[in-house]
Amino acid sequence: MTQPPAVSQAPDFEDDLKTLAVSPPQGLICEASDIFDAAAVQAELEQLASEHPPQALRGEVVKLLRNANKAGRAAIAEGFAKDPFKAQSLTRSYSYLTDGLVLTAFQVATKFLHPLSNPTVGERIAVIAVGGYGRGEMAPFSDVDLMFLTPYKITAWAESVIESMLYILWDLRLKVGHSSRTIKDCLRLGQEDFTIRTAMLEQRYLTGDAELAEELDKRLRKELFSSDAQEFVEAKLSERDQRHLKQGQRYMVEPNVKEGKGGLRDLQSLYWIAKYVYQVQDVAELVPLGLFNVEEFQSFDAAANFLWAARAHMHLTVGRATEQLSFDLQAEVASRMGYQDRAGRRGVEFFMQDYFRHATKVGDLTRILLTKLEESHKKGAPLLERIFRRRPRVKPGYKVIHNRLDIQDPDAFLNDKLNLLRIFEEGLRTGMLIHPDAMRLVSANLDLIDDEMRADKEACRIFLDLLLKHGNPERALRRMNELGVLSAFIPEFEPIVAMMQFNMYHSYTVDEHTIQVISNLTSIEKGELEDELPLSSEVIRKGLNRKVLLVAMLLHDIGKGREQDHSILGAQIARKVAPRLGLSKSDCETVEWLVRYHLLMSDMAQKRDIADPRTVRGFAKAVQTVKRLDLLLVLTVCDIRGVGPDTWNNWKAALLRALYNQTREALENGMEALNREHRGAAAKKALRAALPDWSKSDLKKETSRHYDPYWQGLHVTAHIDFAEMLRELDAKNDPGGVVIRLDPDEDRDATRACFTMWDHPGIFARVSGALALVGANVVDARSYTTKDGYVTDAFWIQDAEGHPFEASRLKRLSQMIRKTLKGEVIARDALVSRDKIKKREKAFRVPTHITFDNEGSEIYTIIEVDTRDRPGLLYDLARSLASANVYIANAVIATYGEQVVDTFYVKDMFGLKYHSLSKQKTLEKRLREAISEGAKRAGS
Fold this sequence. Notes:
- The strands form 3 sheets. An 8-stranded antiparallel β-sheet has the order 8-9-11-10-14-15-13-12, sandwiched between helices. Strands 3-2-1-4 form a 4-stranded mixed β-sheet, with helices on both faces. It has a 3-stranded mixed β-sheet with strand order 5-6-7.
- It is α+β, with helices and mostly antiparallel strands.
- The radius of gyration is 35 Å and the shape is globular.
- The protein is 56% helix and 10% strand.
């Protein structure tokens, strides 16, 4: 094989570094020389080369560039801190700094480490930036994606140059993605792989052989980017769908800024598609092409700037590449970007509201561009589908474009402003999506929705019909919300649009949560949740006032984000909005009541002992009628399910079902139906029937040894367990003995842990400590002493994921609990080294509230402790109460993300309630001290 001819002269790549110094890009965040002083680096490089042999030069160059990189990054960070929204300047600046590092590394490799005095045609190389680096957009810790282009198969010289360059860049701790290819390789791989094709779409020549790079650019345009536009678009859209499936929707409260829905990758996909199909170099070029109007381009620019700014602050905060905007980062980034607390809301909540509004706008822009593409690159539907698919006929004034609902005559449409609502009704009626051109027209004319229109009876009828008459209002409500129609028609809704609640409990923004609640109702009505929600399904089947329910669902959280209690404020808002929508006086009162008390049933079920007759009696008095009870049940179920994908479980279902059934019985048959003695007699009868082999004397001993609360507080299955466990304990006659049973309670998604032992002070706390040590989350606990000196404790526990413990873990669980109860393991000492509060949870502020209630129970004082959740909290609280000689009968635990409400039913050592204010204050002080000490241990 003959050698390629020699090139007449070796190229001088020093010129590229000089060009960088003389002609830096526009719009950097500070002076170019502060970011990378190319002239100074060049001079130092010449000095180093003259002082060190090649084998020692690389290490010296790395020191030089490390200092330059450090200084440049400090200058960029300082400039960004002064103007924390100057994201585009920041991304250019990091790209400029990286250019300087890469160009210097290349010059060192080619001029000093592997010089060629007489290079052949084959010994040429071009260094090309690809991907985000090629686009000139880099976050603080973005990858440096490089392609080394050679004319033929890579030579030994080129291999040495590439290797030396990469070692220098790696020594600078840069994360380099690299490939070595010929032009032929590029064309072949680009044909086979759309990811590679996309990366090369953004290729940018850095240094080396300019003619080789230019030839690549020409051939890519001619042979690769000029065809298969439709295939490329579909590949990008498929990638987008897969990303969204993996990352979750844009309303998830810990979004992925880069890959999530409405994130940077979606904006980049729009740019890639536009560049591929329309050969534009900048998104601004889409405006004269008619693909975006000026306002839409401005939205694109604003969203890109905001998302890049947020991402850059995330990188700088953590000191490495990170894309998930976790709770702890949200608070820090919000602070760095200048968001402050005001009007009862935290600055981080305002920051996240802006984030979600930009993410929503990205979705709008995606739809607009894709529809325009569809018009010119429409993929034909399969022949049989085109022949047999029945298209619904649209009403006059509308037309169908690619199966989307569009407006025939914009001027005629706008002559009747009620059309701004009718189009959504037509979309639901036909099942069609609304064409982006129609969306543009609607969103551009929201000013037509004025007080006169809001008061128009026909407008209200259309709006209510959207909720009531078309099967599923979710799609219309979501689109109306995104276009601003919903908050224009109901201005009181506007503050909660894209509002994030900064806690771990709510997975969605407030407006999205509201729509999810309504969607849940639709699913129940369609029979899709019959097995999961039998009671709600039955209530709906029997019939209830859907108009009242849906309006209450729409308004139930409308008061959020203000200093006032959102239920109270929401009820005041509902008092104005419901009549405006045309509801009758009676219906308005019911809507107002539902909004005011939409948390009542959930609170009663999760924070109170519903086995206590007074709990149910108080709830029944508040509800008053079965109709209200039915409405509140369905609203509560849909509300809890709408909080997040994993919020609803069998435990909550069982609690709500029990509360509903008892309350309904009380409302229909009178409060006497809740009589303690009556329910106790029924429970004893059930136990006798369940133990047919027991003698009469044994049964009598068992039924007479317990006080009344025991019989109404536990299910017959627990009564059976305790009867058998007490009999076993009697037989042992061991004062230090303990009997433990751990059984899955599938109806409640928990493991029931039953304990029997001789009663002694602090036993509840010791059991709580034992359970904390094995990583068990207590969701409910009941403790009953017997008349003959035993204690029977029932705890319902879940693992860290909120599920019952697996059967394989129960033996170890039992052994650890037994060791702790016997004193072989001291819970207080062992918990010191236990789980700490996770870093992402430390940004939450959860103030502690402690209340005493002597009216909610006939025989106990109810102490409610509302505070931050953490490992071992229940143990700390129970131990604190035990040290004050407080008897704990029941503990009801309700967890809401990082917040927990532990409710204790207690009495003093004489069996009396805590009426004395001084005693209450003493107990509160002890509890607060226990919370504070435990928080220090957990590192919060």
